[in-house]
Amino acid sequence: MTELFSSWTLIRTSGFLGYYLLTLSLSLGLVQSLSILKKKKAMLLSLHQKSSWYGLLTIIFHIILIWQDQFVPYSLDELFIPFFAENELLFSALGTLSFYLFFLVALSSDFFMKKLGFKKWKNIHFAVLPAWILMLIHGLAIGTDSSEPWALFIYSFSSFLIIVLLFIRITDNAAKHQSSSRKNLKC
Asked: pLDDT tens for residues 135-151?
């Protein structure tokens, strides 16, 4: 029973849970403005925002657990200053940078969107893609379970899902743009 709640198990679990929630948030963000889901947009937006903040809170818990871990100790500087960690310098930094990018996007979306204006906000919001990729690389490279078949399935499936949803989103946006261009030509 103590192994179930060991520091190592909680660090791994919180890392995967944070990855899941932020992948869910990104997925919901990609589909919320699709034409076929127009009637579900408000619900999808709410789930998108909630999964983002829950994911960030889970990652904060993950960071606190790493800070308190005795087996591979990290100082606060190593956790919050990219490229400062002695253990896995590059991959630890990618996790830190990913967290900062996700946090910036969530903060700007929920608290500064009106002040920034739509165009600046949208440009900042695009940082979720590099943030997600950095998080994926961090998890694959530094995660102790990353070579396990179930972990590889999670990473592979989520990567495939994000790529497919990006393609669908781009295709849907292109179709909307083409449709509005045709309407403008008729006027």
From this structure: 999 999 998 899 999 99
Domain ranges of the chain: 7-181
Q: Which two structure tokens, joined as six digits, stand for 140? A: 């694959």
HSE, CB side, 13 Å, CA atoms: give it for residue 41: 6
Contact 129, 116 (CB under 8 A): no
Q: How much is the pLDDT for 103?
A: 96
Residue 107, amino acid: L
Q: How far is CA 162 from CA 43, 133, 158, 167, in A?
A: 20, 10, 6, 9
Q: Is the pLDDT of residue 167 over 70?
A: yes
pLDDT at 181 over 70: no
Burial of 187 by CB count in 10 Å (0-12 exposed, 13-18 middle, 19+ buried)? exposed
Task: With beta carbons less than 8 A apart as the criterion, state whether 35 and 175 touch.
Answer: yes
